[in-house]
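Q: Predict the assembly, please.
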Amino acid sequence: MSGDIAAMRSRLLAWYDREGRTLPWRIRPEERAAGRAADPYAVWLSEIMLQQTTVPHAAPYYAKFLSLWPTVHDLANAPREDVMAAWAGLGYYARARNLHACAQAVSRGLAGVFPSDLEGLRALPGIGEYTAHAIRAAAFNLPASVVDANVERVITRIFRIEAPLPSAKPQIRKAAAMLADPDRPGDYAQAIMDLGAVICTPRAPSCGSCPWESHCAARVAGDQERYPVKAAKKAKPVRHGIAFVVFRGAGEAREVLVRTRPDKGLLGGMLEVPGTDWVEDAGALPSPEEAAPLALEWREAGGITHVFTHFELRLTVFAAPFDAKASLPDGARWVAVHPIRAAGLPTAMKKAVQAVL
DNA sequence: GAACCGTGGGG
DNA sequence: TCCCCAAGGTT
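A: Predicted assembly structure:
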């Protein structure tokens, strides 16, 4: 078995040296061998953005953040609303709140130096088990064992693990830790994730190109697509609400009225257009006249649907031009619609605004 | 442990 | 169209 492990490490790393992806935040093996070190700030930023997010989706945000805030001190000193607006569209907005809090903790509490030990990393907001190991490996090239969804897929196939996720996680962690290469931890961590992303894909994996083909129990059995086995998922309920878009100005000068959502919960800390609560019983909604934030000439502008992680939202959108005689509701302010059509708004709110344009 | 928390791409 | 999925963390 130990011979197998050595062979697997060496095959995976040889494949990665040849076929691994070049990514903006990644130090390639030849760069690492030449003594070039990764920037822990850049690695951390990329890891937070990549949580539950694809590389193509995160990449432009990564470039934007590094350009706006090149160091952890710059990010720590940025107004939080600027950080939230820059994150808009990436989703899971607790990541952005934690990102800002983590930057402040590192900048002000740790003199701008990211910890390299697991305990120190885990203590920072937004850094959990996976991310601590990933930063330790990719940024510091220290021994670690990353277990993300890619690694879970690879490991359950290699060992043909029948237990469903998430209960199989402890077994997966053990197997992954046993395989991890202590001599090239940074390259190994990124190699096994690349393997999952490029070769060992959820559907139609490219087993013929896999450096671990002969070591893979599922491949030998021919049932690799059965893994990982997952627990059944719950149905998504539908929730209904009314959104109100107050606008002023026209064309490129048009603005809409927004407010900031409370910190906790869905879209916490993000901008929204005024609206009702979101309820499962559409019949329980108030009338638009009762619910409107201002007494204006409302017209129904249409409806939008947006699917969140655990429910589907259907908003009826009402629109009205602002009446200069009216006074703004508490906490409300105007934002321009033009720059990239309601940039800075989360997607559901962007859809509501666009229903009016 | 389970619920909560976004979004967009691919089959 | 619908369903699956992603470099997870927090409570």
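Chain A is about 40% helix and 10% strand. The CA atoms of residues 149 and 196 of chain A lie 8 Å apart.
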